């Protein structure tokens, strides 16, 4: 007998072809030739006809449609009514509301995001109406409202509640056509908007780039014939491709990082294991659906890495590793690309350059992170160390390119190139690069007898930002801490202090859910990476568990996943590797309990699947006289067993029972009540 839990597999999913939850008025399909007569015959609402000013009339009509649509009362003929007003009064679209500053075009774009176009009904489309509005008022596409946003702002992201469960490929393609038309209507104003990083759609998500907001609004795309999501993101990305690496104003997340978290979550679900026969059809269908959506997400990643990918003659013309190195690709995504395409690390592009040459020669100002290029160069050298001795088409070595581009000695990866192939320094003029000579004197005995002060200030500044010092600074920037941790994975001290710094920052904002969520976007994977790289160092495991405990409240926010990221597995591994360390056991128990508290049955099931119950039993058995370990382990067991719908294993009473009884007897005040609750769930 064991813990009495429901073990029924829950593989139910909404059909990809599920009808929209918004009821549509029944409209008979019309031929395209009927559009003109439909505009003539369509009737405006009585309250709209009472308004004499054409601009106010148009604005009121669209505002009324917005309000009614939010109440699930939609009007399929709204776009014909818009055209009717604009055709009667050419200046109607010029109207600007004195309170909000919105134009009718702002409202039209807003309406389209909550009322997707249904191509099965051959009524006038939103694109038809928007074209009419812009023809009537050529400057309307660049008019800003009081918030400082042009109409494009209201259509560059999806309303996920509207599109969720809808056969939305055609609707999304139509929205993409509107985006393209608005950008073309005023390209300069559109690019200016798309290059902003302070765009706000809600205070919960903060200020970010339009591209980031668009990516964040994407839903899982289960369409086996993909294209809609890629086309939508490409339309927003292509006019300003540099924004894929731009930093948001309010957080350090970026579109590619968000997409990789989504891809990881979807791929994790595609390999999900269910109780019983996993060859049954519903399990196979579940896995295939998430394999499909994971691949569709990956196609969006490819589109962001190379906006011209779909215009190339062949996919082989695209060097994915080169493209990833050229931009500030998130470290975990870059590592995945290098590991899955190792042959490309050895291939040269049309300029005769390896990815290592590209990274070494990149403008140092292209990265907002202090240690980004060190991480990139280290990863490439690990995959192909011989690249350090390879010349490009201009007979230049990576070390030469790094020095000529002004890369920092440590943080820029220049020292890494020198360490792998020191003979490359013979090609560098010390007289023209005195700071390099000084840097070498810090690292080796090179030129010690001739050492001068030339460039010393630069090297001193470099040393000031040495990773071990940076992560200890009380006012350290989160982005710098994360960059330093990824670039110095092998340094246990940097990882331990970095995890401690992240925990301190998270603790300071723990009562502010919004700011904690923003922190977790980039912090969770960084902490997990530290724990994975130093499994035998209890200090790293302890600080990592503490950081994850505080960040657990952000689980499921914008693809932050304590399952897919490996956070749960890392915590349980820490418990298994350091059974005798009471501090690690206590911190790990606390972290697991918080993860279950915020993640629910899915996270409880994952904890069970990675032997979390065994780890908790071991903690109780290994530290019988430590009140904190006993208390936290009992509380975590109670939290896990309280979830009736989780897929949990049978807890052997012969092992768990005595441990709980001992905890209750030894620490009745701290463990008595909780232990009794868990014991009551055992049979």
TrEMBL record:
SUPFAM superfamilies: Ankyrin repeat, ARM repeat. Transmembrane segments: none annotated. Residues 1-34 are annotated as: Disordered. Gene3D superfamilies: Ankyrin repeat-containing domain, Leucine-rich Repeat Variant. It comes from Chaetoceros tenuissimus. It comes from the Eukaryota. This is LRRK2 ARM repeat domain-containing protein. The lineage of its organism: Eukaryota, Sar, Stramenopiles, Ochrophyta, Bacillariophyta. The keyword rRNA-binding does not apply. The keyword Repeat applies. Keywords: Repeat. InterPro entries: Ankyrin_rpt-contain_sf, ARM-like, ARM-type_fold, ARM_LRRK2. Residues 477-635 form the LRRK2 ARM repeat domain. Residues 17-34 have a biased composition (Polar residues).
């Amino acid at each position: 007998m064991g813990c009495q839990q429901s073990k029924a597999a829950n593989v139910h999913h909404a059909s990809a072809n599920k009808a929209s939850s918004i009821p549509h008025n029944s409209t008979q399909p019309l031929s395209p030739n009927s559009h003109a007569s439909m505009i003539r015959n369509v009737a405006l609402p009585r309250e709209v006809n009472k308004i004499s000013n054409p601009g106010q009339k148009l604005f009121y009509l669209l505002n009324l449609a917005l309000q009614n649509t939010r109440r699930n009362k939609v009007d399929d003929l709204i776009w014909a009514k818009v055209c009717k007003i604009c055709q009667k009064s050419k200046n109607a679209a010029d109207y600007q509301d004195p309170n909000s500053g919105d134009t009718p075009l702002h409202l039209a774009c807003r309406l389209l995001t909550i009322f997707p176009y249904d191509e099965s009904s051959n009524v006038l489309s939103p694109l038809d109406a928007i074209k009419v509005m812009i023809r009537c008022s050529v400057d309307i596409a660049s008019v800003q409202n009081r918030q400082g946003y042009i109409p494009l702002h209201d259509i560059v992201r999806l309303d996920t509640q509207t599109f969720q469960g809808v056969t939305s490929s055609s609707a999304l393609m139509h929205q993409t056509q509107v985006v393209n038309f608005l950008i073309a209507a005023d390209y300069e104003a559109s690019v200016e908007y798309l290059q902003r990083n302070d765009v706000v759609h809600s205070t919960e998500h903060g200020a970010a780039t339009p591209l980031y907001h668009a990516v964040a609004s994407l839903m899982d795309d289960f369409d086996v014939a993909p294209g809609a999501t890629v086309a939508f993101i490409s339309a927003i990305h292509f006019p300003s491709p540099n924004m894929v690496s731009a930093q948001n104003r309010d957080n350090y997340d970026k579109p590619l990082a968000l997409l990789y978290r989504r891809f990881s979550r979807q791929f994790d679900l595609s390999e999900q294991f269910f109780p019983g026969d996993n060859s049954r059809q519903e399990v196979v269908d579940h896995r295939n659906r998430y394999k499909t959506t994971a691949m569709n997400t990956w196609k969006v990643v490819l589109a962001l890495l190379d906006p011209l990918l779909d215009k190339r003659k062949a996919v082989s013309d695209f060097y994915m590793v080169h493209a990833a190195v050229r931009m500030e690709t998130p470290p975990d995504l870059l590592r995945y690309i290098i590991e899955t395409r190792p042959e490309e690390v050895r291939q040269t592009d049309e300029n005769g350059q390896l990815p290592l040459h590209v990274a070494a020669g990149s403008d140092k100002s292209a990265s907002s992170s202090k240690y980004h290029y060190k991480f990139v160069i280290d990863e490439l050298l690990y995959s192909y160390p011989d690249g350090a001795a390879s010349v490009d088409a201009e007979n230049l070595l990576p070390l030469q390119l790094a020095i000529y581009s002004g890369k920092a000695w440590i943080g820029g990866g220049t020292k890494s190139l020198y360490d792998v192939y020191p003979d490359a320094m013979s090609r560098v003029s010390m007289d023209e690069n005195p700071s390099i000579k000084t840097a070498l004197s810090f690292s080796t005995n090179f030129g010690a007898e001739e050492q001068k002060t030339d460039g010393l200030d630069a090297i001193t500044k470099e040393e000031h930002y040495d990773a071990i010092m940076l992560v200890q600074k009380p006012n350290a920037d989160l982005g710098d801490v994360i960059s330093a941790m990824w670039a110095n994975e092998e340094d246990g001290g940097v990882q331990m202090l970095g995890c401690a710094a992240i925990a301190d920052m998270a603790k300071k904002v723990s009562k502010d859910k919004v700011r904690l969520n923003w922190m977790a976007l980039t912090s969770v994977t960084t902490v997990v990476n530290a724990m994975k790289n130093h499994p035998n160092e209890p200090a790293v495991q302890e600080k990592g568990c503490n950081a994850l405990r505080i960040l657990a409240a952000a689980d499921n926010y914008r693809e932050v996943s304590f399952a897919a990221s490996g956070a749960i597995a890392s915590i349980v591994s820490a418990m298994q590797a350091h059974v005798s360390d009471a501090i690690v056991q206590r911190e790990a128990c606390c972290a697991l309990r918080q993860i279950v508290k915020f993640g629910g049955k899915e996270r409880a099931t994952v904890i069970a699947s990675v032997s979390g119950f065994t780890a908790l039993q071991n903690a109780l058995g290994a530290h019988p006289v430590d009140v904190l370990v006993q208390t936290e382990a009992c509380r975590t067991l109670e939290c896990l067993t309280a979830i009736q719908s989780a897929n949990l294993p049978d807890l052997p009473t012969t092992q768990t029972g005595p441990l709980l009884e001992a905890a209750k007897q030894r620490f009745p005040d701290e463990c008595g009540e909780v232990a009794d609750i868990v014991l009551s769930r055992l049979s």
